[in-house]
Amino acid sequence: MTRHDVQVAVIGFGPCGAVAANLLGQAGITTLAIDKLVDIFPKPRAIALDHEIMRLFDNIGVADKVLPFVAPFTASEHHGAQGQLIRRIDMVPKPYPMGYTPSMVFSQPPVEEVLRAHAASWDGVQIELGTELLELSQDEAGVTLRLRDGAGVERAVTADYVIACDGASSLVRQNLGIALDDLVFDEPWLVVDLLVHGAALSKLPSKSAQYCEPARPTTYLVGPNNHRRWEIMLLPGEDRFAMEAPGRVWQLLSRWLTPEDATLWRANSYRFHALVAHEWRRGRVFLAGDSAHQQPPFIGQGMCQGLRDVSNLIWKLVRVIEGKTDPALLDSYGEERGAHVRELTGRIKTIGHVICERDPEAARLRDERILAEGGGVARTITRQEIVPPLRCGLLGEGAAAGTLFPQPRLLGGVLPDQARGTGWRLVIDGRQIVLPGEIVAKAALLGLNVITVSADPASRDAEIEGVAGAWFDRSGCDAALVRPDHYVFATSVGTADLASQLDRLAAVPH
């Protein structure tokens, strides 16, 4: 039992903080989650999530409650300077590798309600809304937080660890003096959300679009139900606040709709930044979500990145708190997530620069180049191939190390995470390998759940769509060591190679 008031304090209770609280509560970790605001922001901000995040929602027990507020993300058609189609960004086709639609749009306020309510259901999770962090200090043993509640009463709370999910202007990050590295992207955009009246939906494109037009680059997104979003680049000299005025907004949207066609839900201007924290950890305090990074929204990865942060961090933190591994494991959090965020942000920036080109001649050459890359036709790339694997940190060997292991549907349509759990796993291709007793014993000593996937309907783990089999074939392996966050630690070919990878795992904090 900890000598502190709680084992973990979560600062900020948006989606990132709420998922963190759920993961901690599920693991039986005593947790205090606070937010200076009482109510959920009632308008949409994030609009996209992917199958990795829906799998995470399933792991904490809320996927079924979230799905009513989710819809498939349509392909995004990129139109060049003359309106011509130059490429598409879509999702990978069926059979879906994670068991869920690979790319989705969602309505943020009700999803946040689901996440908060579920977090409150865990016995060890205490939630205090309207409570503000004033300052924090730490030593080798723990962290002390000075809090002020809605009545103005101040008190001190101690915790073993703190996770800062307190947003782009993070007080925790500022308190720690952690700088943000500027990855050199700074563009002003207006974000407009409409609830479109039924008859007017036919006036709009059925698919999402990027209008890569030099005069004013614009993004159009098909949200759930009748929710539609436009992201409109602001031009030099335009006043951001004047551009938010309803009259000006409708002028910008006149190409598509009139005020009679829809209800204006939100119009806010932002600067799209590319920023990453120079440090992700200071002692017992970790940054996650927008407190650690901000990226342009061009493939809808902002919230996904934050939820990857807490998914990566918390299984490691739980194992350290429970005394199952060395605290050195926690060093891999910032190493892995920092590198991943920087690489993905770089890819998003590249897409953004293509979209934001305002020189007509440069835009013409861009369109020619992109079409030439597709052999003269608009080629399709997937959102999933844009997201990179892990390339450093807690990784072993094998071509697929650092990639996400798939979730093949088993007989009856059941998903393996639900049927077999989500801890450390040794997944075997049952078509190619049978484990000798000494390997089974070694896996048991390491606490691995052994799963043998095959197409044999008599098998306990018979898959029905060939997803895992295809993954093993592409990866050129017959076994995979999979981490609790579903990333592959190592792959192997044959029992001797597998024994070597198990020894490698045994030798590092995990």
Order of strands across the widest beta sheet?
Answer: 19-16-12-15-14-13-5-6-20
- The number of helices is 15
Q: Fill in the CATH topology of one domain.
A: FAD/NAD(P)-binding domain
Structural class: alpha/beta
User: Separation of termini?
Assistant: 22 Å
Main pleated sheet: 9 strands, mixed
Q: How would you describe this structure to a colleague?
A:
Among the domains are: 6-71 and 102-180 and 275-332, FAD/NAD(P)-binding domain, CATH 3.50.50; 411-506, 3-Layer(aba) Sandwich (Glutaredoxin), CATH 3.40.30. The strands form 4 sheets. The chain has a 9-stranded mixed beta sheet, with helices on both faces. The chain is globular and about 70 Å long. The model has no long low-confidence stretch (mean pLDDT 96). The chain contains 15 helices and 24 strands. It has 510 residues and is of the alpha/beta class.
Provide the fold topology.
Blueprint lengths: L5 E6 L3 H12 L4 E5 L12 E3 H10 L2 H4 L3 E3 L3 E4 L5 E6 L12 E4 L1 H13 L4 E5 L2 E7 L4 E6 L5 E11 L6 H6 L3 E17 L11 E4 L6 E5 L4 E7 L6 H4 L2 H8 L8 E16 L3 E2 L2 E3 L5 E2 L7 H20 L9 H25 L4 H14 L5 E4 H4 L29 H5 L4 E5 L7 H9 L3 E5 L13 H9 L3 E4 L5 E5 L1 H13 L4
Parallel strand pairs: 1-2, 1-11, 2-8, 5-13, 6-20, 11-18, 21-22
Antiparallel strand pairs: 3-7, 4-7, 5-6, 9-10, 10-11, 12-15, 12-16, 13-14, 14-15, 16-19, 17-18, 21-23, 23-24
